Amino acid sequence: MSEVEFQPKGAIWFLIILVLVAFALSVIYFSRNNPDLTGGTLPIGRPITSRQPRVYTVFYGLKVFSPTNIRIHVGDSIRFQNDSKVTIRIVSDSTGAVPDLPGFDSIGDIQSEGVFTYTFSSVGTFGYHNAKNPEESGTIIVRP
Question: What is the CATH number of domain 55-143?
């Protein structure tokens, strides 16, 4: 007896076309009330939202600033709080003889339990240190 090979020529193509039509109809049906699928504009990146300025506290104690590095946004403030028994003076790092952040330096010494607050108005990376011991330092990264 000879074997008969089954060769469905038109049936396979009909099935493929039927599946594609069903897929197209389902996309049309489910995208009726979805602007993301009907050619509406897709959001790119993060939505812009209004943000209230914040105040962050950097503590000084045991000869170290904590946190040492902090990220904030333009308009935010840093409150430096001296939790040690000695006075400190916070100053901006300098390039040559010019401070990296003019106007940042604390006015005089900050006594024990005293505070110094500064509001950042420009984007950048700013280093600071204790003028009485330059090895005691930190960095503030200001984002838009």
Answer: 2.60.40.420
pLDDT-derived band at 111 (thresholds 50, 70, 90) equals very high
pLDDT in tens, 15-37: 888 888 888 887 777 666 555 55
Q: How far apart are CA 74 and CA 134, in angstroms?
A: 26
103-140 core/surface letters (b: 16 or more CB in 10 A; e: else): ebbbeeebeeebebebebeeeeebbbbbeeeeebebbb
Determine what percent of the chain is predicted with pLDDT higher than 90.
Answer: 54
The ranges assigned to domains in the chain are 55-143
Amino acid at 132: K
User: Given phi > 0 = left and psi -120 to 50 = alpha, else beta, which region is 124?
Assistant: left
